[in-house]
Specification:
With about 110 residues, the chain is mostly beta strands. It is about 0% helix and about 30% strand. The protein has 2 domains: about 35 residues, no CATH class; about 45 residues, N-terminal domain of TfIIb, CATH 2.20.25. It contains no helices and 7 strands. The strands form 2 sheets. Strands 4-5-6-7 form a 4-stranded antiparallel β-sheet, with no helix packed on it. It starts with 11 loop residues before the first strand and ends with a strand. The structure holds zinc ion (ZN) (2 copies).
């Protein structure tokens, strides 16, 4: 469906000499319809999840049996001197796993940056 660019009336399809046209019944404006209309290309853009940037730390997924560190790492939030720590492979397998810390006192979780 297309509307006349001049008067806004609904254009009617018309065939003359093997060609397709759209004609306005109101003002007579005629427009040739190109036979080779570009096929709709659906751009399939898949957003790749950047695993390096997305870091998922599930609440309560760290058991309380995690090893503790005392007086080595301090919580950046509350400054407590005891933290749980564990490692997780967050990047390519040939890269060293990232170490995570969790504050014993306030539960704040952060990762160790190299
Ligand atoms: Zn018209
Ligand atoms: Zn803390």
């Amino acid at each position: 469906m297309k509307f006349c660019p001049k008067c806004g009336a609904l254009m009617r399809p018309k065939r003359v000499g093997g060609k397709s046209y759209l004609e306005c019944p109101k003002c007579g404006y005629t427009e040739e319809v190109s036979q080779d209309q570009p096929a709709y290309k659906i751009a399939n853009k898949i957003k790749h999840t950047n695993k390096e940037k997305s870091l998922i730390v599930e609440e309560g997924s760290e058991p309380e049996t995690l090893p503790k560190l005392k007086d080595v790492v301090y919580c950046p939030k509350c400054g407590y001197n005891e933290v749980y720590y564990w490692t997780m492979q967050t990047r390519a397998a040939d890269e060293p796993p990232t170490r995570f810390y969790k504050c014993v006192k306030c539960g704040y979780v952060w990762r160790e940056y190299e």
